[in-house]
Amino acid sequence: MKWFKHDSNASIDAKLKRLRLKYGMEGYGLYWYLLECIARTVEPHNLTFELEEDAELIAAEVNIHRDRVEEMMLFMCDQGLFENADGRITCLKMASRSDEYTLKLIRKGNGVQKSSGQAPDKVPPIRIEQKDKKEKKQREHRPFESFYEAYGYKKSRSDAEKAWKKLSLEEQDLVLACVRSSQWRAWREKQKKDGFMPFPASWLNAKRWGDELPQITSDDGDLYV
To answer: pTM higher than 0.90, yes or no?
Structure first.
């Protein structure tokens, strides 16, 4: 494939926003690099839209630690940016964003193949090692302690932990981004000083991380941002 369509408003896609929220531009850049890796292997005899490189090879190319590359790739699969079938990474939606020549091949009936059709001894190694069940379960929720420490108002821990576990992964990521911001910390200190700081469980249950925070100024007149 010579090229694929890249929408000019791709950056506002919710899945890519969550990717940037968690991994910044490092994760965003890796996403587009992986798409390029997939696209350059698409040929008339290979319409699998499959990633041939494994995490180790990719890490060497992009100069990011292998474990971090693997973590980001797993996150992208969890978000639905790629498909992960038994450790084989594909991006089948690229079929609709291919160059004209590739689209013609697909329309002629070749279709998008689900596997490469290679002999077992020729199949590239598994792209991402499968985690055991315990590790998979641990990925279902972010550590509660990360939120509790950042919130900075340790009241009714058990209630707060129950409220935390009710949140989705996406919501937990948004909460952590909020309580780690300097603007929120300034608001927290003012609330505590005035005696109006909500208990963490109440704050979570009310989904107040989405509230627009007022601008807070320090004693010397500087604005917290």
So the answer is: no
